[in-house]
Write a structure and sequence with these properties.
5-stranded mixed sheet; 29% helix
């Protein structure tokens, strides 16, 4: 990106160039009054030439973060690995610092040394997609500007952008609230007060309780498979597993209805009718010669795409 910016500046006429331009390829050493509550790094880590430089950059960003750090990069396997390693680095720094002191000084404030993952993982465990043919990434549909359509020779102004990300926040993960379940009411009363009751008759939870519970909800990590009468979704659970959940209309109408509207990357609060550990196809190079001979052309092509 910096190389592109330098090239654009060189091609601009002299009368249209900015008076002064400063392009920083690397982060400068920590300086006073540079700390912020929210620090965002977008599509930058994968452009650094080495893992050592990326490690130093992430540590510098974290030292300048008072509360929340957001790391975003491309949705490729390599970029997903970089984001996962940055998360592991921050979790490791937190565990090392917690033994010395529960707080650390950032600027003029004392902030907790503990750290938790806000998204996309509902835990502080390892990335469950490691050593599998898949990688943790998500998709967002965006609207292309006119100049991008001309550059890519596209007739559509809609594009699905794939990305990997992680949101890290200082402090321990909020505990799951222990609240006694309230009794259901009749459906007529629930319809009369939709702001207080769900369509099933259960009372709506307070916003503060939902916010605390959301830190422990699973996240959908792939596009849900929506079929007639049931929905299948792959989720990352709080115990660090990738499971395939099935929701049917006969099991729970509210859960089935929400599953029909759920999208890739959403948090999901309901429990399924059936769960199963998601078994991924092994990479082609990991199979034995006998197993490779048993593959048909379609299976071999799909596994080669996983390897890429």
């Amino acid at each position: 990106m910096i190389n592109c910016a330098e090239q654009i500046l060189d091609e601009l006429p002299k009368n249209k160039r900015p008076a002064s331009t400063e392009l920083l390829r690397y982060l400068a050493p920590e300086q006073p009054n540079t700390h912020a509550d929210l620090v965002v790094s977008a599509f930058a880590l994968s452009e650094l030439p080495s893992d050592a430089l990326r490690k130093t950059t992430v540590e510098t960003l974290w030292q300048n973060t008072k509360d929340t750090l957001v790391l975003i990069d491309r949705g490729t396997p390599n970029a997903s690995r970089i984001i996962s390693e940055a998360r592991d680095l921050l979790l490791g720094l937190s565990s090392q610092a917690s033994g010395d002191s529960p707080t650390v000084e950032i600027g003029e404030l004392r902030v907790p040394t503990a750290v938790h993952t806000v998204a996309p993982f509902p835990n502080e465990l390892g990335d469950p997609s490691n050593e599998t043919p898949v990688w943790m990434h998500f998709s967002q549909r965006v609207q292309r500007p006119t100049f991008t359509m001309r550059t890519k020779h596209s007739l559509s102004n809609i594009e699905d952008v794939h990305y990997s990300y992680v949101v890290m926040r200082r402090g321990p993960r909020p505990a799951y609230p222990q609240v006694m379940p309230s009794a259901k009411v009749d459906l007529d009363k629930a319809r009369a007060h939709p702001d207080l009751y769900l369509p099933s008759g259960s009372p709506r939870k307070p916003l503060e309780q939902l916010v605390s519970e959301a830190f422990h909800w699973p996240r959908i990590i792939a596009p849900p498979i929506k079929r007639k009468g049931h929905v299948v979704a792959d989720v990352c659970t709080p115990d660090g597993q990738i499971q395939r959940w099935t929701f049917t209309k006969t099991h729970d109408k509210q859960a089935y209805r929400d599953a029909r509207k759920a999208s890739w990357g959403d948090l999901f609060p309901h429990q399924p009718k059936a769960t199963a550990l998601r078994s991924y196809v092994k990479p082609l190079e990991a199979l034995s010669p006998e197993a490779k001979q048993k593959l048909n052309r379609k299976q071999r092509r799909s596994m080669m795409e996983f390897d890429e």
